[in-house]
Amino acid sequence: MSLDRATIEKLAKHCEDAELEAYEITKITEDYPEMTYKDAYDIQWTARAAKEARGHKIVGMKMGLTSQAKMKQMGVSDPCYGYLADYFSFGDGSCIKIDELIHPKVEAEIAFVLKSDLSGPGCHIGDVLAATDFVMPAVEIIDSRYKDFKFDLKSVIADNSSSSRYVTGGRMRDVKDLDLKTLGVVMEINGEVVEVGAGAAVLGHPATAIAMLANMLAERGEVLKAGTFILSGAITAAVSVKKGDNVTVKFQDLGTLSFKFI
Ligand code: OOG
Ligand code: MG
């Protein structure tokens, strides 16, 4: 049974307040076990509209739980998406204030920027590669609002798929010049290698995640517009960070990016 509009709005505020004020909440499915996947996305889209109404710009989208490493780490079996707001975005060399976050983790990702619209249903990897303007290196900082970073798929969707911050590197490349399947990444924290991976960790090929996003959005009548920035999902497992940590991710063919938690 679906939740009513008032409950969707209440839960959107509940999750978004926890994000804005950086405090933990219990999984919303504990109080609303009957909620559906559509309810979960309705909650996410309602919080997104609230941010826009307050003057924030939505600057991109993300896919999450697209790799076996992540699905296994979080105990879920399907990918999910979320949106990226203007204040989530940081550049290479940034300092990120950890006190604004609850229990952040970092994960290496490949970001896509589109040059033409992409829509489902039936969107496939060829459509994605043809519609991609360029790819660039990125690190996502996820910060589930749920206690101990534990959730089920509906709860995490309602919580904007744990979106929190992301950092992009300055090197853009044409997908024609890269093999995104074998593109390797090495993630270091304070000079120590903590995770390694290759693009194929993301559904066999990161562009597959973008096709999946277009197909999921089509269920709501939404389209990925030309110019959209999209995080395709973690290549590595997510690693917890603390104040003072220096994160460096080396991407084959896409350069290195670094930032610090202060
Ligand atoms: C959900 C978001 C996962 C990814 O890239 O797999 C994600 C979570 O693990 O908190 O962003
Ligand atoms: Mg991610």
Automatic annotation (TrEMBL):
Protein name from the UniProt record: 4-oxalocrotonate decarboxylase
**Gene Ontology MF term list:** 2-oxopent-4-enoate hydratase activity; 4-oxalocrotonate decarboxylase activity
What cellular-component terms does GO give this entry?
cytoplasm
Q: Which residues form the Fumarylacetoacetase-like C-terminal domain?
A: 92-259
The record's SUPFAM superfamilies line, in alphabetical order, gives: FAH (SSF56529)
Domain of life according to the entry: Bacteria
Origin organism is Aliarcobacter cibarius
NCBIfam families this protein is in?
catechol_dmpH
Q: Does the keyword Lyase apply?
A: yes
Which UniProt keyword terms apply here? Lyase
Alphabetical list of Pfam families matching this protein? FAA_hydrolase (PF01557)
EC number per UniProt: 4.1.1.77
Top enzyme category: lyase
